[in-house]
Amino acid sequence: MTVLAVQPGETPADEEPPDTGERHRLTALAGFAALSLDAMASVAYGPEAIVLVLAAAGAHGLGFTLPVTLAIAALLAVLVASYRQVIAAFPDGGGSYAVAKTHLGARTSLVAAGSLVLDYVLNVAVAVTAGVAALTSAFPSLYGERVWLCLAVLTLVTAVNLRGIAESARVFIVPTVVFIGSIFVLIVIGLFRDAPVNRVNSESVVTGNVTSVGVLLLLKAFASGCSALTGVEAIANAVPSFRAPRVKRAQRAEVALGAVLGVMLIGLSVLISRFHLQPVQGVTVLAQLADASLGHNWAFYVIQFATMILLALSANTSFGGLPVLLKLLARDNYLPHVFALKADRQVHRHGVLALAAVSAALLVFSGGDTNTLVPLFAIGVFVGFTVAQVGMVRHWRGERGTGWRGKALLNGFGAVLTGVAAVVVTASKFDDGAWLIVITLPLLVLAFETVHRAYAHIGERLGLGRIPEPPHRDRSVVIVPVSSLSRLTSEALTAAASLGDEVRAVTVCYPDPEDRANLHALERAWAQWDPGVPLVQLACERRSLGRPIAAYVRDVSATEPDTRVTVLIAEVEPVRLWQRLLQNQRGAVVAHAVRRDTDAVICRLRFRLF
Amino acid sequence: MTVLAVQPGETPADEEPPDTGERHRLTALAGFAALSLDAMASVAYGPEAIVLVLAAAGAHGLGFTLPVTLAIAALLAVLVASYRQVIAAFPDGGGSYAVAKTHLGARTSLVAAGSLVLDYVLNVAVAVTAGVAALTSAFPSLYGERVWLCLAVLTLVTAVNLRGIAESARVFIVPTVVFIGSIFVLIVIGLFRDAPVNRVNSESVVTGNVTSVGVLLLLKAFASGCSALTGVEAIANAVPSFRAPRVKRAQRAEVALGAVLGVMLIGLSVLISRFHLQPVQGVTVLAQLADASLGHNWAFYVIQFATMILLALSANTSFGGLPVLLKLLARDNYLPHVFALKADRQVHRHGVLALAAVSAALLVFSGGDTNTLVPLFAIGVFVGFTVAQVGMVRHWRGERGTGWRGKALLNGFGAVLTGVAAVVVTASKFDDGAWLIVITLPLLVLAFETVHRAYAHIGERLGLGRIPEPPHRDRSVVIVPVSSLSRLTSEALTAAASLGDEVRAVTVCYPDPEDRANLHALERAWAQWDPGVPLVQLACERRSLGRPIAAYVRDVSATEPDTRVTVLIAEVEPVRLWQRLLQNQRGAVVAHAVRRDTDAVICRLRFRLF
Predict the structure, then answer these.
(1) What is the pLDDT of residue A160?
(2) Model pTM greater than 0.90?
(3) Which of A33, A90, A396, B266 could form a disulfide linkage to A173, CB 3.0–4.6 angstroms apart?
(4) What Å distances lie between residue B59 and B202, B204, B213, B219, B268, CA to CA?
């Protein structure tokens, strides 16, 4: 799933040169290989999701694997045709959020955006669990440790993203090609066999308590299997990454993606039926197929490794894609602008860590089980599909070009299918976690709208878009809080003298004898030093440092009009980090009080000590 | 345990008027009542600690309760005599830390200080668990919830201290007098009875597997029982709180404390022997005594409540005492100066919360059981006693006044007894938690010394104690980072013009087309506005905001000598807290980079939006 793919050249890390020139852009073939990663990865869990639902009706139910897969392939064809149209209509990319923003209004586009955010998060969890399932299918002794393995893979992906690697779409080509090649070999060889080479000697998880196959079961199998369709929209989102003529090349890549994915899904499902495979605890359906078709030899391990690497890369794309989406939302004032800040790695890191934390929670919540997460994942994806296609119907109705009715019908049909799938998955998995999505999605939309209103209010107050009044110059008084005499004091007064028309040092004095003694010592030293700056004493009965200074600042502001009051706080900054604990925090206390109680500008001078 | 008692008038809260005048100071009687709280409170757990050890040798062992108590009373006499001498020698108070600093060198004084810190922390935990034990003895149905009750009491004490109540030593007088009175009534009535009125119908926790009473068992019982002596030193630490003649009055109060405590301990132990009491799960020995002596009536409940309140107040004294000790250590440069900051409640709150958190951890660790914590508590107390008395031996040897040999002998004898007690408790309880103290104490001393060395280094660099060079005035250039045009920009330039001889607005520009368009819009608006300030464009290939600005600042500092460069960062500050999330953090990013890479003064102007 890469609803908003990382565009080649546009990297999540902050310090890469921007995309320049046509040379780096993608041909149809390269684009297909680079952008189909997520769609291909879903082959690893899509067929399994179907088999798992049908297994509830025993062997009879499993017989419906192929028909259900054919229905999904039909939906795939509709979606691919639909997204060909999206590519033509939205050559700047942007996916369902862009379509909905143009044709369905702000709120619907926010629903699409919210579902995309959820998908990015769930994609990480699903891809990691499925990747680990591929690994534990090859090495069953690791099955008990799967949650830890998932967290380890997540940590690895997170670490790589924290480092901010310069990732290029081309990196994805090799594993994608290896994976597709392996699956095709698997399918072809399997078709020539009458019986499986190997059969997994584990207990089947078929419960078999349902023997009649109802419509609802088939619908559920269909809806679960639709998770195999995630990633179909990736190419439509990345049209600007293609070489000119962009639309043509992107459309060709989209069709190629649909064809390859469809063949793989149907091929695998034929083999599942032929070898009478059943869901087995601890061994994925794909691993069983590899075993059955190729035998338990090096080829089996190649497929498992290729699957695992592809899935890890698929998880990685979320880390690239989510920031791009959040940036779009922030630019439209639906998220704090910090997400649109195109600079300085720190912000990016927070995003990576937040995504990793939520994904880790999902991994633990699911116990490392892909099949718990897939339905949740599917809900968001289908909501996005549905919104995009309803938007396209509006698009065609508005445009009324040649054959618009046919195009609108196609998109409308797709919308109905994916909408039904969304409802079926949500209803059937409500108790198993789908409630989480049902609660979270509206909350996200609400948050987006609240942020948007707040920005509108702030922009109004700031007079954004109007020329502000011209700046002027005020008399400047710089107030320097002082408590003892040292090189720091000298530095502070030099800085203050350079900034202000007038400088006043202030010190807070308390009535207690020890403090009074300190004050007298300071007064004597001050007189001896004679810096040409008055030392104002602020008597304070209560033991407070910040308040008397803030009160003095307020007082100066009130009694001396047209005066700009600045408080200059000088602090020692030791070079070693731990030594910063030794700072007395007077500066922080004063800054806090002045900031809270006054409008004065606060200057902080840090005096570096080696 | 109040090794450094809260002196009446000197309060932990930061905003109280300081102590003034003799009128508020204590007479001998008031001082005794006010400062004996902790010592009296230890009656609630001291005798129990003896009985619990001796119970290992069955009824035969319990027969040694009185002899062991008499030995402890003898030690009490030695300690009281010793502290009378400390009062005379150190009329300014300060306790074992002060004695050790004067006579035993810095490191030993730090050992004393470290053990005091541990004692303050453990005192909270011990007093709370013992207080709750008094409560659950009265209401046995609450026994299962004791950990939660302990945490509730701790929360209450913490909340009261966070509010920063103006506590006065006089507040302590009433509960102390009620408690002492009740215990005396209990003892006197008990002495007139031949058999207990009531006997608790619970199972004895006597294991009875040891039947011979060895020297080691007696030593252990002695060492455990010595926990009853905690608090004896409180008066010696608070001599300045007494009315003149201070030393005489304080000495009289100390002797009174010793006498009352000794009579209580011996009286209770006579009753324990007479009634053949045994340690019982869930009912404290003191509660059993009340039951036996007074019967299970209102008098019993009065004693339990008085005990509980006294213990809660005893826990409360740590919250007052620890900050005073930390302040002393911070003044001597052994702790970060923030602990000596006599102002602004925030700092005090951190201390209260830290103490509460560590105490809560100890409560949970001990499972709310006083007898797990008492030995740990005793170690620190005895280390303090021993250090103080060894210091006093040195004191007399140095002074060589009349009868110095006798005085030195007395203190030396006390030092040996308490030193042996410390070793016995540590060895016998090593596996049960004493290892924690053995590890923590040296670490504390190490931390104190490390901080001290760092301050010496910083003071040297700062030229503390020398008159610094006079301040001068430099040309001032104020740099204002700008990204768009609004009322905020106008405010920023006004502030900058007031502060600087020259103002330059800077904006970072990136090569990407969208950014370039934004830049052109800004340039046009700037030209139209014409603020009289140049807009410097900092081209940056990489997506970084802070670095180009920091590089420009460095560049200006390097090429324009005798110029003080100031970076003025203007930020919007919405009034609602949550809206602060909407800030784009550009200011923080720029401030971070400038602070890291340059020595420029950073000014932050916050533009309040309503």
Answers:
(1) 77
(2) no
(3) A33
(4) 16, 11, 11, 18, 17
